[in-house]
Amino acid sequence: MANREDFRQKFRELDAVVNQGNKKEKMQIVTNEKMINSKTIHMNLEDHTIGNLMRMHLLKNKEVKFAGYKVPHPLEPKLELKVQTVKDNTNQILIDTLDTIMRQVETIQDSFLQQVRQWEN
């Protein structure tokens, strides 16, 4: 059975292989000309998991008018997230949303590790 560090090493190797052939940036933020106070975030190597998570958390914010995402093609690991806000603070709202998600993931991870330790004892 492989341990956590073995998996991390495999993911690093896979990431290095993918990045050799793909010199694109991981994420690109574009201001939309057609909608006021809106941005489109192009994320490479992402799918519905992060798209739906971001959309759900963005829509909880009262300053967000619209949040939606799409995966242009099922065989392409690419995600487009569109966000429109009430004020011109879209970047800050995106940063706050990502911070919230990271805090929640850390809480879940801590709780999981605590349960594992209890189970092992």
Task: Walk me through the structure.
The protein has 121 residues and is α+β, with helices and mostly antiparallel strands. It has one domain: RNA polymerase, RBP11-like subunit (Gyrase A, domain 2), CATH 3.30.1360. The protein has three helices and four strands; from the N terminus they run αββαββα. Strands 1-2-4-3 form a four-stranded antiparallel β-sheet. α2 (48-59) packs across α3 (90-120). The longest helix is centred in the last third of the chain and has 31 residues, at 90-120.
Mean pLDDT: 85
Radius of gyration: 18 Å
- Show unreliable segments: none
Distance between the termini: 20 Å
The first-level CATH class name: Alpha Beta
Helix content: 40-55%
Strand order of the largest sheet: 1-2-4-3
How does CATH name the architecture?
2-Layer Sandwich
Please work out how many helical segments DSSP would assign.
3
Please describe the biggest sheet, giving its number of strands, its sense, and whether it closes into a barrel. Answer: 4 strands, antiparallel
Task: Name the structural class.
Answer: alpha+beta
Question: In CATH terms, what is the fold-level topology?
Answer: Gyrase A, domain 2
- Number of DSSP-assigned strands: 4
How many domain modules? 1
- Residue fraction in strands: 15-25%
Which superfamily, in CATH terms, is the homologous superfamily? RNA polymerase, RBP11-like subunit
Query: Which geometry do the CA atoms define?
Result: globular
Write the element-wise H/E pattern from the N-terminal end onward. Answer: HEEHEEH
